[in-house]
Amino acid sequence: MELNFEISKRLSREHLEVISLLGRLGTFLQSGGRDHQPDWQGPEVRRVMSDLRGALRAEIPNHFAIEEEVLFPLFAQENGTDLVELLLDDHQTILGFVADLKPLVEKALGSPDGLSQTEWEIFRAKGQALVTELTAHAEKEEFGFVPPLDEGLDPATAKDCLNRYLLM
Of 37, 92, 147, 155, most Cβ neighbours within 10 A? Predict the structure, then answer.
């Protein structure tokens, strides 16, 4: 389905970008196993961790904020609240993982030694949970939320939503 409005296209693009990042993160988390930590100074590890830091700091919270504050209420008017409630529950779960992972990502990027073994095990478990939960969530939104949202928008409302998002 082709989307009509820039806000819908932006949401869709962000879903695809986060799914790509989560794929890279999942590969990274599986590569060494529980007992073998990565080379924290290696270029690919630094790239994945830097991209993850950006997603945890701003991209995920901002994406969720525009949905919760503006888009979910619009969607619920046309389509009911069942999917919105499910997506809000997902947001809470995912934001819990975001909060747990942020300090570990910062430490890994800020220390030449990376994480302690205990921190690595926590990071790996929470990271794998984030990969699972956020991938499923992004797919739900991509196929169940964005297309009907786009269909229900009018040009003025779509433009207002995009402008509000750009100010976040």
Answer: 37
